[in-house]
Amino acid sequence: MRLLDTNILIYSYAENYSHLRTLIWDGASAVSEMTRLETLGFHGITDKEMAYFNDVFIVIKTLDIDKATIDEAIRLRRTFKMKAGDSLIAATALLNNLELYTRNNADFEKVEELKVVNPID
């Protein structure tokens, strides 16, 4: 199983990255609640995009952010000077033993125990 970073969902909306939709619909992916917040909470989201992403969040498994996830995110943020959102997504992947699919490898490369896959390059 894999955890999709927010950018993978966002890219999947674009026709030239439509191959990423397979990662959403194949049943082997999950996202963090942080990804739901980042995606649906974007101030510039259009109605058409909102409809697409709402459909995505009906289908894909969404993993909660609990105290253990917050604690791990705190550790990662302090140790690796990560952004809050990235630390929550990395913590979710680590605690659930998931590979992280992202285009932003550099945001996560310091976390050696995290398996990072770039499905775009």
Summed up:
This protein is α/β, with parallel strands linked by helices and 121 residues long.
Write the layout of secondary structure elements.
Elements: E1 2-4, H1 6-13, H2 21-25, E2 29-32, H3 33-40, H4 47-59, E3 61-63, H5 67-80, H6 84-95, E4 99-101, E5 116-117
Give a verbal description of the structure:
There is one protein chain. With 121 residues, this protein is an alpha/beta fold. The chain has a single domain (2-117), classed as 5'-nuclease (Rossmann fold, 3-Layer(aba) Sandwich). It has six helices and five strands; from the N terminus they run βααβααβααββ. It has helices at 6-13, 21-25, 33-40, 47-59, 67-80, 84-95, and strands at residues 2-4, 29-32, 61-63, 99-101, 116-117. It has a five-stranded parallel β-sheet with strand order 3-2-1-4-5, with helices on both faces. α5 packs across α6. The longest helix is centred in the middle third of the chain and has 14 residues, at 67-80. The chain is globular.
Unreliable runs, pLDDT <50, ≥5 residues? none
Q: Looking at this structure, what is the CATH superfamily?
A: 5'-nuclease
How is the largest sheet built, in terms of strand order? 3-2-1-4-5
Supply Rg. 14 Å
Elements, N to C (H/E) = EHHEHHEHHEE
Overall mean pLDDT = 97
CATH class label: Alpha Beta
What is the level-2 CATH architecture name?
A: 3-Layer(aba) Sandwich
Query: How would the global form be characterised?
Result: globular
β content, as a range? 5-15%
